[in-house]
Write a structure and sequence with these properties.
It is built from four helices and seven strands; from the N terminus they run αααββββαβββ. Strands 2-1-5-6-7-4-3 form a seven-stranded antiparallel β-sheet, covered by helices on one side.
Length: 200
């Protein structure tokens, strides 16, 4: 009896004759613990894609980027990553506050490899970890329900040109993005935002 697949997923598997394959993937590749190989893969990533949904099940997907190691593997069941200053909408973080179920996709575009992680998330204050994560507005801690590799054949092979200069690195203030100085945004920025200060 599968713990992974829903009835509608099973119907499609039967329609396309992939039920045996799906069962084999579940029994051989799906796990509920982070292996040492998973940890190395996750901690080497400089981005992730986060799927979340609000209390009514309406989904969104967001990109989170940082330097390699911005996702910390705390133990074999737990990962943690920062949410940096963004556009102030808090779509994903707000979703997590009311619906903790998340999906995370890690991709290595150069080696054409990917890992899916599903679990439950909770928001933590930035003061809750040591060493602190520079520039984090809130921390996301995810307890793993399951994770598994995915078929890499449709991953486009890409090469890193440059990491974002806006990633907080704790070596000084991050640059101010141009959109914060635009007329539509500059007068409604939160108190204390460096972009509110006049340019010299």
């Amino acid at each position: 009896m599968s713990n992974l697949y829903t009835g509608s997923q099973r119907e499609l598997q039967r329609e396309h004759d992939t039920e045996r394959l799906a069962d084999r993937i579940e029994s051989q590749l799906v796990r509920d613990r982070i292996t040492p190989e998973d940890r190395a893969f996750i901690e080497a990533r400089d981005m992730l894609f986060l799927a979340s949904a609000d209390a009514q099940g309406r989904p969104t997907c967001s990109y989170k980027g940082g330097d390699p190691g911005f996702v910390r593997v705390l133990d074999e069941r737990t990962v943690l990553f920062p949410s940096y200053d963004g556009n102030g909408m808090f779509l994903s973080m707000g979703n997590l506050a009311e619906n903790p179920h998340v999906g995370i996709l890690f991709i290595d575009f150069e080696a054409q490899s990917r890992l899916r992680l599903e679990g439950t998330a909770r928001l933590l204050p930035t003061s809750s970890v040591e060493p602190p994560i520079p520039g984090a507005q809130v921390l996301v801690q995810v307890t793993v329900r399951r994770l598994f590799p995915n078929c890499p054949r449709y991953i486009h092979k890409l090469q890193l040109v440059e990491r974002s200069r806006f990633v907080p690195r704790g070596t000084g203030p991050a640059p101010i993005p141009g959109w914060k100085r635009a007329g539509w945004a500059c007068d409604v920025l939160p108190a204390g935002d460096p972009a509110r200060e006049p340019t010299s």
